[in-house]
Amino acid sequence: MNARLVAVRAGVRRGRIEFGHTMTNAGELLGWLWLPAVALVVLHAFGDGAIPGVDFPLGAQAVPGVLAMNVVFTGLVGLAMALTLDREDGTLLRAKATPDGVLAYVVGRVLGKAATTIAVLLLVLAPAVPLFDGLEAGRVSTWVTAAWVLVLGLLATLPIGAVLGAVFGDARGLGLVTLLVMALAAVSGVFYPITALPGWLQAVGQVFPLYWLGLGLRSALLPDAVAAAEVAGSWRHAETALVLGAWAVAGFLVAPAVLRRMARRESGSAVAARRARAAQRLD
User: Fold this and answer.
1) Is 270 exposed, middle or buried (0-12, 13-18, 19+ CB in 10 A)?
2) In a domain, 248, yes or no
3) Residue 8, domain extent
4) Is a pLDDT exceeding 80 seen at residue 236?
5) CA neighbor of 226 nearest in space, from 151, 133, 160
6) Does 105 map to a domain?
7) 167 domain-assigned
8) Domains in the chain: how many in total?
9) Which distant-in-sequence residues (6+ apart) come within 8 Å of 35 by Cβ?
10) DSSP secondary structure of 209-238
């Protein structure tokens, strides 16, 4: 059997094990759920106002944006964090020591994080549907649209997480990534329609995947009348697929090269240096 195929199959098994561990580890699972849970509570308490020009509750309108932001946190930031920590503790170096071990490692990490992201989204959506009036989770079209948007969203964001995990030498740098994601959420229409922002901020927000992932999930979960509050007054499915697809293509072109470079640079001395720096931070 082809050695790469064996490595991919090993990666799939690793991803399944990682996903099972996350789902049965209460502390880790709560770590991914607490932020969207707090956001839903705040939206339910203070989101009674209506969207300007649309007779629809602002809190319900923001729920898909919260789901989109959590996809980015769980998938992109989560994968970057996992890669960075695995470089620090030598996990990646051990994978490098086996034939096609890095391939199996990356496949496992990506699949495990993708499965966790989908599971967390469903766990957040389950209480949100009865909590917020107006979310349309009972339509077949809802799940069809949500499925292709989520798949494209993961393909667009996971490679970015892999690149960031390969580029940053330690976990401290990921704090900056988290701050950038939060800043991006502010200009991506996560909690309020992006049309309320100045035109130049709207343009900035529409460059990145978060806005389009949120727009796609809004088109799946909200009534069509709410599209009047969006840019151009429509859900823009074609543009959503185009932008997320472009980010996915770019990510899959860049990420393999960056990951190969990262793997080549892994060595015992590099791991020892990271451990020494980590020990100094704890002193």
Assistant:
1) middle
2) yes
3) 3-273
4) yes
5) 133
6) yes
7) yes
8) 1
9) 70, 73
10) HHHHHHHHHHHHHS-GGGGGGSGGGS--HH
